[in-house]
Amino acid sequence: MIYTGRFAPSPTGPLHFGSLLAAVASYLDARAHKGRWLLRIEDLDPPREVEGASDSILKTLEQFGLHWDGEVIRQSDRHAIYSDILSQLIQSGAAYRCSCSRQQIRKRSGGLLYDRYCRNHPPVTDAHCAIRSRCDQDHPFDDRIQGHQQFGDQVEDFVIFRRDGFFAYQLAVTIDDAAQQISHIVRGSDLLDSTPKQIQLQQQLGYPQPAYAHIPVATNIGGQKLSKQTLAPALDEDQALQLIIRALDFLGQQPVAELTDSNIEECLSWASAHWDITAVPKQTGIILEDS
Asked: Where does Zn(2+) bind (predicted)?
């Protein structure tokens, strides 16, 4: 099997240090396995997208020496494919329409986990509906970093098409990982609980299951993940080498002092040759001291 990994940012703003961690970890794992590293722009949510962010992401990756293989895939070009597969899931009975609002769900169940109301009480066909995947069981998996994972208390029929007319992340990412023949996924631990949902869809659609590895996310002192929403600063391209070395240290790779006198290409070459995924901290989050 040819190792194929990927980095899949959303164009909601410039890359920040949290983004860099996922990019570096997935890149090094691919290069250490002599594999391919693909780039996918996950532009599924136009209201959240920032104009020019896609181009900025590509430019930043190049400035940081993180060169991808093949063409860049953009989810906004793949709506027809998602629509066809969504129809297949509905026709097979693996998915159904749901007209429930979050307020209605909370009122009925006292929480946010869906109570399957529309599975048993189908809405009228012209209702303003989301589409949910039927999910009757947990899908435990063994993570290469975090170990055995199970989310039995979070099993629910989850949304794969939103009420506002947009395809949901879980559906699109599952379809695209299969289409790109992704064999290994390395990403942030904030997506751990999305993994069983993607495994569910893989099984419904007859897709192979990739190997998963979830790195700890960088958090601020308040425990919040670094993100555009928490005002994480954009990466400074003039500090590319220093930031990559910092990312290697965060990921437990023990970068040698000599790397500070190297260039980006030399640094990434050293990191690829010395990459050890077992050294990545088995934590879901680590506080970034100056955040």
From this structure: 98, 100, 114, 118
Q: Residue 42 annotated as binding?
A: yes
pLDDT of residue 220: 87
Q: Is 114 annotated as a binding residue?
A: yes
Are 65 and 180 in the same domain? yes
- Beta-sheet strands, E only, within the chain: 4-7, 36-41, 73-74, 95-98, 130-133, 141-143, 147-149, 158-161, 184-188, 211-215, 217-219, 285-287
* Residues 133, 203 share a domain: no
Do 95 and 183 fall within a single domain? no
Does residue 228 have a known ligand-binding role?
yes
Q: Is 8 annotated as a binding residue?
A: yes
Instruction: Consult the annotation and say whether 100 binds a ligand.
Output: yes
Does the pTM of the predicted model rise above 0.85?
A: yes
Q: Does one domain contain both 138 and 187? A: no
Domain, as residue range, for 128: 79-169
User: Are the C-beta atoms of 65 and 265 separated by less than 8 Å?
Assistant: yes
CB 185 within 8 A of CB 5: yes
Q: For the chain, which ranges sit under pLDDT 50?
A: none
